[in-house]
Amino acid sequence: MLPLPHGGALRGNMGRRGRRNQAEHTDDWQELLPLFDWPEQQAYEEVRPLVLFGDSVAERANETGTPQRTMYRRVKRFANEGMLSLFGADPATERARRRGLEPAIRRMIVELKAEHPALNNNEIRNIVYVRTGRRLGKHTAERVLSEEVIPLKLSRLFEPYHGTEVDRERRGAVVTLHLDGWSVKAISSYLKVSRMTVYRVIGRWLREGEQGLTDRPAGRPKGVRKVDLATMDAIRRMQENPELGAFRIHAALLEQKRGAEVSVRTVGRIMAVHRNLYGHLGGPKRSPHRKKPMPFRAHRRHEIWTVDVRYVDHDLPPAEIEGNAYVIAVLENYSRAILASAVSRSQDATAFLRVLYSAVERYGSPERLVTDGGAIFKATRSEAVYAALGIEKEQIERGKPYQSYIETTFNIQRRMADYHFAKAKSWQELVEVHERWMEDYNAQRHWAHQDREDGRYSPEAALGFYTGLRYHPEDLKRAFFSTRCARVLDPLGYARLMNWRVYAEEALANRDVALWLGGDDLFVEYAGETLSRYEVEYRPRDGGLREVRRPELFETTHRRSWPQLRLFRLEDALGEDGWLKALRLEAYALRGRHRSQEEEALQQRLFPYSEAL
Prior knowledge:
This protein is α+β, with helices and mostly antiparallel strands and 613 residues long. It is 42% helix and 14% strand. It folds into six domains: 14-88, no CATH class; 94-147; 161-213, Orthogonal Bundle (Arc Repressor Mutant, subunit A), CATH 1.10.10; 229-277; 304-463, Nucleotidyltransferase, domain 5; 483-584, no CATH class.
């Protein structure tokens, strides 16, 4: 029973009415104290003269022995809460009130959790801020939810997205929750719809406003196609290569800025139409396989590189090349980007180290290098380069080529470039086809990146500007010193190496070239392109370069683009074998020793004796 105000003290329970009737009315605080049965009576009697008659707080505090600040606080609380201020409040509510958290915000937090239990504390904080402008502490929502009882809510604010028949209403629900501060993840979970749908609805509303919530006309108008004839013709021309599938052709269309409105499925349907119209267009042959674990999967850029060599089928005349052509490539496992690659006439250690040097020079060194069991990867010179660069060499298991990521890349090269490799008529065309493939492969979409959320769908974009451990050019040259050295061509296009003068290219006079010496071969290279090749006899511990024979000059674009006019060409006037491409020179003479003044004076004194004799 609530205490009631009266002229003196509050009445107690009815059991003591007799004694209370015998007490006389008094305003003396000391005489009132024995008459109080409840602490609420005492608390009310303290503030009663102040709130009813406006007595002095200082005099009342002196009278009752209560501090003035406490008295002021009790009067203010009584004015705000009335009789409820006389009773003890819940400790949790009292703590929240002392922290300045309003009861309305506490109810809001509890109602949000009851509306969607999947909301986390951070999402609740954001919604409260959007609604009230009040920034809650990091643990405020968690503390309130631990102190309150979450009610069971039988109704929802909005029905699930696909449970609402009217499209405008369900799109409006997405926008309403978005404006209320809900995150895309929370909206997706609450309305039971994909995040892409939420993004699409919000994006359309931001672009079109209220009109973006209405339905659009179903289907496309008659006579309107998403694919024009130019795109279909481009698909047909690329379909001439029977190894290309729908995904790879779609990636090429995107690179050509033609596939923005065409999906992979649409490309596949157009390819099927072309196969029905043109009988010679066949589809790619694929064999079913089961995905196997990959032990060399990279978790960051430049953690693992993979190197391998592949045979290239060609139809070049014997005058251009004798034997097979090879592609040596370095793959970055995380981004699937080709870091360096070259078409080579041989697959020896020197050719491999040339490609590895190009990759390390541009991107730094990796942590681990994965190869198969090829001898060129386990050569002594190769092992020395690994040790100098701090690269950990690893090898795939024998009989398990699928462990090498570059095998997949070579399969892509087979589908994209083998058709054009077979049509090449010269070595230069073969090199151009390879360079075009490398550029297209790095720039086009890759199947491994199709589910990325950062928009980096191509190997080139996935790699970005990141590099491995970079080296100073001098340190890098020192690591490859036994196999590579730099020279400047003289005016006739020759380079000097160990008392030998070898021809490279007259059109590149006074240019810096790289000489790769290893095993039985010597290569002269400029800007990654091989200019000439020689068979050599090299003994580093016994006389150095002993013999240079069988020169082989390669056709390059530099010779064709040389602007200087010549009266005649050496090969035309003297024949291919009529002029020397490798010439042994005299060894450098030893520098004479400088004579001292004593030796000069002694020699002068000896002259008279020599003349006399």
